[in-house]
Amino acid sequence: MNFTTKVPVATYAYPIDYSSKLLSLGSCFAENMGDKLDYFKFQVKTNPFGIIFNPVSIDRLVDRVINQRLFTESDIFFHNDLWHCYEVHSELSHPDKDTFLEKLNAVIKTMNHQLNKSTHIIITYGTSWVYRLNSTKEIVANCHKVPQKEFTKEILSPEIIQQTIQNTIDLIRKVNPDCRFIFTISPVRHIKDGFKENQRSKAHLITAIHHSPFAIHNYFPSYEIMMDELRDYRFYNDDLLHPSQVAIDYIWIRFFEHYVDSKCFDTMQEVCNIQKGLTHRPFNPDSSAHKQFLVVLKEKIVRLQAKYPHFQF
């Protein structure tokens, strides 16, 4: 008997391997997938500007990075004892203005190099809902706990999202015509927007991607897997909004089975064994058995690093 509806996942035409250089952008689920890729020692960079939920803000940052438009004092503001920027996540905020600007512009230069050199770019869209700053009419990536009255909330139409996706693709391909894209929609539920509003938001994202011939042919259905294969609250964290670790692991398995070159699977298992060994906590650290275990573990690491010099444990 089958107790779940299996979502079909097509095998990706341009599989990821250990020579691939990956950049993962978007919502917190982009971080989940980035963490998994990093755990298995793939060459991945995740959200250099922090978590970004909506397509317009992702596109705006890509445009800034590719055209190397550095941040200036006019792009930042002081609030609650920190300097912030409406284009980036609050994790980058800083108490010193000059340090903050230097940090932001250093990320532009680093990310510019990453966009130029990436073989695969994974973009995870989280929501169609956006906040527009009343004083500038610009859509922000993060409100930084500025009072709600300073913003107007609106939802992006599928047409605007589709145009934004295409613009992001065109921008990146202008500097890196050979890179491959993977698009997905975050399975995280944005219930603070409301139940109907969350469904409407995801529907706009899905509609936009399905009306983009390029995006739909490079689409991984993480949202659909969560909704159809894992349609039970036991697959959510305690907040009932974010996928649990079990759900993340399951979606990751569906991803690597179809998007990672099968020639990498044995190496991935070796990496996994080493990672588990590194987290092992012995009853007696001074025992000869544990010391021998560490010697063998070190030998495994050295052997893998000889083959893949970029591996760091």
Q: How would you describe what is shown here?
A:
With 313 residues, this protein is an alpha/beta fold. The protein has a single domain (21-262), classed as SGNH hydrolase (Rossmann fold). The chain contains ten helices and nine strands. A four-stranded parallel sheet has the order 2-1-5-9, with helices on both faces. Strand 3 and strand 4 form a beta hairpin. Helix 4 (158-175) packs across helix 5 (195-210). The radius of gyration is 21 Å and the shape is globular. The two termini are 42 Å apart.
Question: Brief description of this entry?
Answer:
This protein has helices at 28-39, 55-66, 97-117, 158-175, 195-210, 213-216, 222-229, 245-259, 265-278, 288-307; strands at 21-26, 43-46, 76-79, 82-85, 120-125, 129-133, 139-140, 151-155, 180-185. It is α/β, with parallel strands linked by helices and 313 residues long.
